[in-house]
Design brief:
- By secondary structure, this protein is mostly helical.
- The protein has 10 helices and no strands.
- Helix 2 packs across helix 6.
- The radius of gyration is 28 Å and the shape is globular.
Length: about 240
């Protein structure tokens, strides 16, 4: 006849086995501290900037890193407070643009400018701090890195899309793209950075229209050419 362990004894054995397994298990890794997270975030943002600057000066690098750390801390705190309102206003802007409601779009942009006005002191402090260490050209490099070089990329594309631009027209385009960059460095996401550039691209395209360019047709021809060039490259690659 089979002998069965009493229920209470079986439970005790199972509990002991579980305790033994827990005692010998590898302890879970502790979550990174806030300080560690902030350090990683700073490195993520500062490394591309320092690489682009190529200062070869430890003292200057330390000052740039310190300026960036203070700026990012202020920026993150500001966005934590204001992002909900900012996102809603950008949605209002997009909906108005879709409806071709220029007045509504401009009203949304004015409200966005009003919200961001509360960050102006931190923005100016950051750039002033950089300017005490870097040349004007190097400060421009920092701005370009923070906006993934959108000024140059967009400016170059305008040259390809709109043929025969004069020096005066190019100067207008560049001035507005740099204004977009100035605002976009404070954006919380890449989507919002692009939205700031869209704000100024609207002004640029209105200016080009006033100067005789058919903006829609120019874009259409550019896209068709890009597609045709891509097809030729693919065909050439397939035939190799």
């Amino acid at each position: 006849m089979k002998q069965f362990l009493p229920w209470t004894l079986l439970v005790a054995i199972l509990n002991l086995s579980s305790l033994h397994a827990q005692t010998n298990a590898t302890p879970p890794a502790s979550a990174p501290s806030q300080a560690d997270q902030e350090k990683r975030t700073l490195e993520k943002h500062s490394r591309p900037i320092l690489d682009a600057l190529n200062l070869n000066n430890a003292g200057k690098e330390a000052k740039v890193r310190a300026s960036l750390a203070e700026y990012l801390k202020a920026l993150n705190a500001w966005h934590a407070t204001n992002d909900a309102e900012i996102k809603s206003l950008w949605n209002q802007f997009s909906k108005a643009r879709t409806k071709q409601d220029e007045a509504g779009a401009n009203a949304a942009l004015a409200k966005i400018d009003g919200v961001y006005a509360s960050f102006k002191l931190d923005h100016d402090k950051f750039l002033s701090s950089l300017s005490s260490v870097l040349t004007p050209e190097q400060v421009e490099s920092v701005k370009d890195t923070l906006t993934v070089n959108k000024v140059k990329v967009t400016f170059d594309n305008y040259g390809k899309i709109f043929h025969g631009l004069t020096d005066e027209q190019n100067a207008f385009i560049l001035k507005n793209l740099k204004s977009a960059r100035e605002e976009a460095i404070n954006a919380g996401t890449m989507t919002e950075k692009s939205a700031f550039f869209k704000k100024y691209k609207i002004k640029i395209e209105a200016y080009l229209t006033a100067h005789g360019y058919d903006v829609k047709q120019s874009y259409k021809e550019f896209i068709a050419k890009e597609k045709a060039d891509a097809a030729k490259k693919k065909a050439a690659a397939d035939n190799e």
